[in-house]
Every structure is written in structure tokens, then in C-alpha cells.
């Protein structure tokens, strides 16, 4: 056994080393990573590490992330088990998977490599096996040239900020203690994906099958191309599938949960009951009703929440959402005797608040939906199956269910590209923008909300304005966007 104190990224000292581990001499280098190339701001954002491949994300960084994630997960594990590794269809995912696996095995962990699969597959399999954690390679809804690394703890939940900070500390050369017995091994375990598929179907329990329903699925050339159509078909639905081949050049391009126009047109053309659009790794979903109208995460939370409330399966009638949740949703839920807790944007914050409060349902307007009756992470396929089952059991269309729920306040969201990372993350220091925000908040009072934030997943500043009428929302959105463009985007 090697016992050591890791003082920098490239120091591994030991008094005795097994013969099998002596071959891993590459651990005595920094794996080719240039520390000066790391940004000053934290690497981990709202959903792991994400960026442009070849710039922030490259093989040396992935190798180091794998190694330090392995060390941190081992240090906090009650036992030493394998780590689950999956990926989406991006062209860079193979490269990053192999680099991550090299780092993880260098840290002494056994890697179970799933290959192409949705992010919730990694979370689920991590939670039901003796794995010490899981890693998913995906940039979710981002374009093909981006990629990302998401890390899960042994329970299948997103890794806590504290453990993310430990991994980053190792990456940046700070002292971390640990021990390694020997190099780990890499095994292809793609057969495990079917266990997740079965769990999806079993989650419906005694609810009606989807027999007789016509459902359109947009799988965005991404991670759900294999599972989504097969699961819905096996549940009895007639499935029309869009963008249903794994394609690293086209993942999320004008399709999926961020581009719903093709799905809307297809639902109308085929007179389908409803449609679902997933992002590249299928951890989120948006719906389209039978008229082609978009049904976002707020509506999904309301409809699923009402069902759980009626089944007395929603403790304290609580739903956890984010600061992006529409005021119309919040006030309608309150009239049903419910309470809504808002968190910062990011499903990891929703998840943490659900665990803190005992909440069973939570999610984001963007389609990350978490239901702790069935899992602990956002799951697009699970959510879509349950919403389809609710529609089937109700005897009315999804459009009618939405009509009977609530009306949203006009809400505009604009993304302003700000390439300079420091300017973007420190936008609060922009005095003209702060003055404009204060002026808008005073003008709207209780009849509106403003949210300006730096995206944790893309090089943009998001400006959201919600108001009692569309004209007010539009005017203040334009004013704030203009301030961002003038003072930050240059």
C-alpha cells in the first residue's frame, strides 16, 4: 500500500510501492497541464466544469480532474468501490472519457464505463451499486464544440460544493492527503444501461400504460437516442422520433430543449397527443401540448405537484424551484395551499434545498425536474414518462390541463455574450448596470421582477425581466440589455 501526502499536483511520495504500481510513473508529472492556463475564477460552475474543448477543456485537464476526483471520492468513501463513467455523443466525449478514466484508474479506482447514455443513468447506477461516485461527460444543452464534466457522489447526487472545492484545490496544487493501493482497471459495462431503462418503466407502477397515445420525441442527436424511443414504445405509445441518431456534429443544433419549433410543427402535423424535447444529455425536458404550445418546467412542476398533492405524497405541499420560476406559477400554487421555495439557478441548488427541507418535488423552468419518490437528480426521461401518464390518466388533453392551471406573467429572457470571463463573473461591479436595475425595480414595484446573472454554463450574461404586462417587460429588458452590451460586452 502507498501512503502519501499530496503536496502539489505532481508529487507522489511513498516508502514502499507495489510492482504493479511502479509502472504508473506518469503520476510523477503534472500530466501536461499548464497551471498558468487555469482561470483565476473557480472551474466548477452551476453544473460541473464546462467550456470550449481545446481551450479550457482538454485531455491534460480531464486527466487531472479524474485523478483528483478519484482521490477526493476515495477519501470520503465508506468503502472503496468502482466509479461509473458515461458520456454524451459529442465528438470530444471519447477523448475526455479516456483521459478521465486514466486519471481515475491512476487514483486507484475501478472504472465502469457505460459509453453513450443519459446523465441520469450515471446518477441512478451510482446510487444502486457500491460505487464511490459517478462522472458524466456532457455539456448538456451547449453547442457541439463545448463539453463538460459532471461529478456525482456515492448517493447519486451532484457533488457538493465542498467536495468540488477539494478537487479544485488538488488541481491548483494545494495539499491533499490520500492513499493508493494500486492502479485501478477500466471495464466496459454498457449492459448496465438496461437496468436504468427498467427502473424508468417500473417507476410508473400501477399507472395506466401509454397505449393509444401518439408522442413525438426530440432526442437532439444526443445521449437519449437509444433509450427514449424504446422506453416509450415499450410502455405502449406510438412514437415519432426526431434527431434520433448519435451525432457529435449536430447535438443540440437547432433542436432539442432549446429549439422547440420543429417539435411543435411535428406535433401539429401528426396530430400527436404531446411531444417532449430533451437536451444533449437528457437530464432535462420540455413538453409541447397537442396544440403545439410549449409547456415549460413551471407547468410541469405545477401539474405533477397537483397530482402528488392529491395523492398526499407531497409533504407540506412544498415545491422547490429557482429564482427563474414565474410569478404566475408561484401565486397559482399558493392558491392551491402550496408553498414555493426559490433557490439560485442550478439543479444542484434545488437538490440541496430539497434534501434540507425534505421536499419531494423540485426543478427549474428550463426543464430540470427532480422527484425524490424516484430518484435524486434531474431526469428528463422519467419526467416525460410521468407527465405522459398523467395526461393519459386524466382523460383530457395536455392543452386542457395547462388551460386549467395558471397564466404566466410576461417574462423575457435575453442572453448577452460577454467573452471576458472576469467581466462576466464580476458584472455586479458595473455601476451603470446597477443603477439601471435599481431604476427598473423602483418603477415596477411589486408588479415585476428582475434577475441579472452570469451563466454558469455559457459565456453569457442572462437578463430576465418579468412584469404585469408585456410592454413593461420588453422596455426594461431592452434597457438592461443595452447597459450590458455597452459596459461589459466590449
Brief account:
Helices cover 36% and strands 21% of the residues.
Task: Based on the model shown, name its key terms.
16 helices; globular; 21% strand; alpha/beta; 490 residues
Task: Walk me through what this model shows.
- The protein is α/β, with parallel strands linked by helices and 490 residues long.
- It has helices at 19-22, 59-75, 93-106, 119-128, 161-171, 193-202, 227-234, 261-269, 297-310, 327-335, 347-357, 380-394, 398-403, 421-425, 431-444, 470-487; strands at residues 2-6, 44-45, 48-52, 83-87, 111-116, 133-137, 146-152, 176-180, 186-188, 214-218, 238-242, 274-278, 285-288, 294-295, 318-322, 339-343, 361-363, 369-371, 411-417, 448-454, 460-467.
- Helix 10 (327-335) links the parallel strand 15 and strand 16 (339-343).
- The radius of gyration is 23 Å and the shape is globular.
- It starts with a strand and ends with a helix.
- Residues 1-29 have low confidence and may be disordered.
| Radius of gyration (Å) | 23 Å
- Distance N to C terminus: 55 Å
Instruction: Determine the strand fraction and express it as a percent band.
Output: 15-25%
Q: Which shape, going by the Cα principal axes? A: globular
Q: Give the number of DSSP strands.
A: 21
The total of helices stands at 16
Helix content: 25-40%
**Mean residue pLDDT:** 90
Structural class based on helices, strands and sheet pairing: alpha/beta
Adjacency order of strands in the biggest sheet = 2-3-7-6-4-5-9
Report the biggest beta sheet as strand number plus sense, adding barrel if it closes: 7 strands, mixed
Poorly predicted runs are 1-29
Amino acid at each position: 500500500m502507498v501512503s502519501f501526502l499530496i503536496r502539489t499536483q505532481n508529487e507522489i511520495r511513498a516508502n514502499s510501492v507495489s510492482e504493479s504500481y511502479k509502472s504508473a510513473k506518469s503520476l510523477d508529472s503534472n500530466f501536461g497541464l499548464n497551471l498558468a492556463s487555469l482561470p483565476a475564477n473557480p472551474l466548477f460552475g452551476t453544473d460541473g466544469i464546462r467550456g470550449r474543448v481545446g481551450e479550457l477543456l482538454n485531455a491534460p485537464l480531464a486527466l487531472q480532474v479524474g485523478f483528483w476526483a478519484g482521490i477526493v471520492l476515495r477519501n470520503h468513501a465508506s468503502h472503496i468501490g468502482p466509479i461509473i463513467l458515461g458520456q454524451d455523443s459529442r465528438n470530444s466525449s471519447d477523448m475526455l472519457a479516456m483521459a478521465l478514466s486514466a486519471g481515475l484508474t491512476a487514483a486507484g479506482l475501478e472504472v465502469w464505463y457505460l459509453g453513450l447514455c443519459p446523465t441520469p443513468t450515471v446518477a441512478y447506477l451510482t446510487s444502486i451499486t457500491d460505487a464511490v461516485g459517478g462522472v458524466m461527460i456532457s455539456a448538456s444543452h451547449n453547442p457541439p464544440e463545448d463539453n463538460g464534466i459532471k461529478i456525482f457522489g456515492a448517493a447519486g447526487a451532484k457533488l457538493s460544493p465542498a467536495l468540488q472545492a477539494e478537487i479544485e484545490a488538488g488541481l491548483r496544487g494545494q495539499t491533499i492527503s490520500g492513499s493508493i493501493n494500486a492502479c485501478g482497471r477500466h471495464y466496459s459495462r454498457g449492459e448496465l444501461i438496461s437496468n436504468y431503462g427498467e427502473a424508468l418503466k417500473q417507476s410508473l407502477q400501477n399507472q395506466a400504460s401509454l397505449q393509444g397515445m401518439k408522442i413525438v420525441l426530440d432526442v437532439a442527436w444526443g445521449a437519449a437516442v437509444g433509450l427514449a424511443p424504446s422506453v416509450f414504445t415499450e410502455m405502449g405509445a406510438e412514437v415519432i422520433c426526431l434527431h434520433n441518431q448519435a451525432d457529435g456534429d449536430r447535438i443540440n443544433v437547432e433542436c432539442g430543449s432549446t429549439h422547440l419549433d420543429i417539435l411543435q410543427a411535428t406535433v401539429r402535423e401528426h396530430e400527436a397527443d404531446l411531444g417532449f424535447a430533451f437536451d444533449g444529455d437528457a437530464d432535462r425536458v420540455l413538453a409541447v401540448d397537442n396544440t403545439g404550445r410549449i409547456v415549460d418546467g413551471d407547468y410541469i412542476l405545477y401539474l405533477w405537484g397537483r397530482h402528488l398533492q392529491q395523492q398526499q405524497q407531497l409533504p407540506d405541499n412544498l415545491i422547490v424551484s429557482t429564482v427563474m420560476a414565474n410569478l404566475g406559477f408561484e401565486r397559482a400554487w399558493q392558491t392551491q395551499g402550496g408553498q414555493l421555495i426559490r433557490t439560485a439557478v442550478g439543479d444542484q441548488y434545488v437538490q440541496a434545498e430539497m434534501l434540507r427541507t425534505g421536499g419531494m418535488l423540485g426543478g427549474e423552468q428550463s426543464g430540470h425536474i427532480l422527484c425524490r419518490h424516484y430518484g435524486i437528480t434531474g431526469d428528463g426521461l422519467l419526467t416525460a414518462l410521468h407527465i405522459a401518464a398523467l395526461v393519459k390518466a386524466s382523460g383530457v388533453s395536455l392543452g386542457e390541463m395547462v388551460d386549467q392551471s395558471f397564466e404566466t406573467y410576461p417574462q423575457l429572457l435575453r442572453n448577452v455574450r460577454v467573452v471576458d470571463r472576469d467581466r462576466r463573473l464580476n458584472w455586479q461591479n458595473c455601476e451603470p448596470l446597477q443603477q439601471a436595475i435599481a431604476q427598473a425595480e423602483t418603477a415596477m414595484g411589486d408588479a415585476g421582477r428582475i434577475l441579472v446573472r452570469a451563466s454558469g454554463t455559457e459565456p453569457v450574461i442572462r437578463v430576465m425581466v418579468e412584469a404585469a404586462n408585456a410592454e413593461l417587460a420588453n422596455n426594461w429588458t431592452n434597457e438592461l440589455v443595452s447597459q450590458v452590451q455597452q459596459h461589459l460586452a466590449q
